């Protein structure tokens, strides 16, 4: 009968980790924000590595187009209609039952980031938008909790570890979120699975360094890859921190964390959909609402969400009052549909 130690035997033989590093991993806690493409690889790698507690947070549900690159999920998951976080949590627990896996169906905002990150020794970015990344950056610098940024589009990607007080932060690299249409998206440029896997693996490696007690091994540079053009670059971003002009690192300004910055609606990358963060402000009985919507369109409901399918749109309402409106990228149109059919 194999002993529990056999699970990590090859990892322990890697000298920079060894037995001390494996113990440190077992005693550590990490927050993975987003369990889509990047988050799938990150969360699975950290769970397989024996990190003691892995909390995954995601705001979305599974879509057919996700299966091309979101490796935690399959067609059975798609048919279930459940949120990604729930599906990810179940899969991760089957992968390693010795890890405390906690799954949260939530949109990360300035109101809940402190609660979601409570006890975390590191935060890893599995996101698809810069507003939430800048929120994570504010939280990281204000509290001293390190985080690992990663982004991927087409065949290109970037990875950067943020060590508060030691390295540049994301504000130095991206002072403002790109305006709509200003930067390529999944819709305009697409994305290939191998690029996602490489970026996420680089992020997971940086997280393992942090969580195993190997902070000195963390890369202080920005890694940029282009798998199609066969390019890997290391960019020195130290001057972004050293020049003393960063409003986050040096002036200690945290507008995303305070709620001064941040919108109530977001266009979801590659989805032709809009998320309304506060579509409904009242507490909703999903079962009762489902009954009232019979005849309006096709209605499906589970303990986590209600989905109303109309001829040209789909409305997915979550327990926390958020609604994802599919079939449009127009916020006004999304709000109108919610008001018309859900009575907001």
Automatic annotation (TrEMBL):
THIF-type NAD/FAD binding fold domain: residues covered: 8-242
Keyword terms, alphabetized: Nucleotidyltransferase, Transferase
A GO cellular component entry from the record: cytosol
UniProt-listed Enzyme Commission number(s): 2.7.7.80
GO molecular function list: molybdopterin-synthase adenylyltransferase activity; sulfotransferase activity; thiosulfate-cyanide sulfurtransferase activity; ubiquitin-like modifier activating enzyme activity
CDD domains given in the database record: ThiF_MoeB_HesA_family
Protein origin, superkingdom: Bacteria
Family: Belongs to the HesA/MoeB/ThiF family.
Protein name in the entry: Molybdopterin-synthase adenylyltransferase
């Amino acid at each position: 009968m194999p002993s529990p130690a056999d699970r990590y035997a090859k990892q322990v033989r890697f000298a920079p980790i060894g037995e001390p590093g494996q113990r440190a991993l077992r005693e550590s806690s990490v927050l993975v924000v987003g369990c889509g493409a990047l988050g799938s690889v990150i969360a699975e790698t950290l769970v397989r590595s024996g990190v003691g507690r892995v909390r995954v947070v995601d705001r979305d549900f599974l879509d057919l187009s996700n299966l091309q690159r979101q490796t935690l999920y399959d067609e059975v998951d798609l048919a279930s209609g459940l949120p990604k976080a729930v599906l990810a949590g179940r899969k991760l627990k089957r992968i390693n039952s010795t890890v405390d896996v906690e799954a949260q169906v939530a949109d990360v905002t300035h109101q809940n980031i402190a609660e979601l990150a409570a006890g975390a020794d590191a935060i890893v970015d599995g996101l698809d938008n810069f507003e939430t990344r800048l929120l994570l950056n504010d939280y990281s610098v204000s509290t001293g909790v390190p985080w690992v940024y990663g982004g991927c589009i087409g065949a290109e990607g970037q990875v950067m570890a943020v060590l508060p007080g030691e390295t540049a932060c994301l504000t130095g690299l991206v002072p403002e979120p790109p305006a709509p249409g200003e930067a390529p998206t999944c819709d305009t440029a697409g994305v290939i699975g191998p690029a996602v896997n490489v970026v996420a693996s680089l992020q997971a490696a940086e997280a393992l360094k942090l969580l195993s007690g190997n902070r000195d091994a963390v890369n202080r540079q920005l890694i940029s890859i282009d798998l199609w053009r066969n390019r890997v670059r290391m960019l020195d971003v130290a001057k972004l921190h050293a020049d003393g002009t960063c409003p986050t690192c040096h002036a200690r300004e945290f507008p995303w964390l305070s709620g001064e910055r941040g919108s109530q609606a977001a266009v979801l990358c590659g989805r032709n959909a809009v998320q309304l963060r506060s579509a409904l402000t009242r507490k909703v009985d999903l079962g009762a609402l489902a009954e009232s919507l019979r005849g309006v369109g096709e209605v499906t409901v589970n303990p986590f969400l209600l989905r109303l399918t109309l001829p040209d749109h789909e409305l997915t309402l979550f327990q926390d009052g958020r609604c994802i409106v599919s079939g449009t990228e127009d916020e006004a149109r999304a709000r109108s549909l919610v008001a018309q059919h859900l009575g907001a």
